[in-house]
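Per reviewer request, we include the raw input and output of the structure prediction for the construct analysed in the revised manuscript.
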Amino acid sequence: MNSSIHILQNENRQKVEAGDELIVTIIVFVLIFSIVVISHELGHFLLAKKNGIHVVEFSVGMGPTILRHKGKETMYTLKLLPIGGACMFEGEDGITSEMYGEIEGRPKKEVEGTFQSASVWGRISTVFAGPFFNILLAFLLSLIVVGFGATDKPVIMGTMEGYPAAEAGIQAGDTILRINGERIHLYREVSLISYANRGENLEIEYARDGKNYTTQIKPAYDSETGRYYIGLQGAGEYTKCKNLEVIKYGYYEVRYWLISTFKSLGMMFQGQVKADDLAGPVGIAQVIGETIEETKPMGLPTVVLTMINIAILLSVNLGVLNLLPLPALDGGRLVFLLIEVVRGKPIPPEKEGVVHFIGFVVLMLLMVFVMYNDIMRLFR
């Protein structure tokens, strides 16, 4: 009888702990996503104000509105699903103040202050500001990670016997300087180049005892993992940064995530990344939960810095993806604006609006597909 009670108590305790972990994961996920989205939309908002463009609505989230506040000129809304946001301009894609009711101090049919009434370069800067603020946020967060944590300098910890690096004479303690002429600042850059390699030769420049050496290697294919390896061990030499080094390596952090994002996109278009490898909000939340569990034994500071690292990754990704020249994204809008610069007159707003609407529908279908993949992955 007592053993049965203990079993029930243990099961109840595990359920409570699992529930607590889920709540923590959701809170952290919402917090990270909200910071990244607000940063993006704030960029649009501030540059719109600077260029005299009336912002009809500033929203965080998607779906039904749960909170609403009407400012002097802008409606501020919080929506149910914390997976996006919007900064809607007067006159953009047919959006007007009338849709949101009378706004204090402004006539309903005012031409001045519309998106189209601003100069073309004012509109370009307003659209570009969203992705730029994401990169700026990533840099500011990187200063925290580097300042309170450490950075992985590209120092070799060891080599794998029988692999190209060891055969080429590379040893533990060597510092990687360049690979194929590309300057290396972080060990993760070496790992990224190795991961993306498809068997191409690599020219590696490294330093040892104050002297520089250059060697050519051809990564070895591993049939078990289906990828090529240079044959290096370890994760670099973790070093604390001081004073101006924090700014320098904060920049290197953002540079790494930018390069990583672009290379990942390239691999996706080349078919090296499968659909199952894509992660949406559910997948990201799952990664956050798993990462919290893995880093929890290392202490709260490690957990916080790791979550900031995830925020950096998401912010850079959001900034880069929004610059892709696709309809409904900032990059798609920039394409229309650059066409306007070249031809000297804008594309009719109603035609541009149709293109962006079609792009938005396709984007929503893609999000549904990715979310479906995320949910199915939970049951595998």
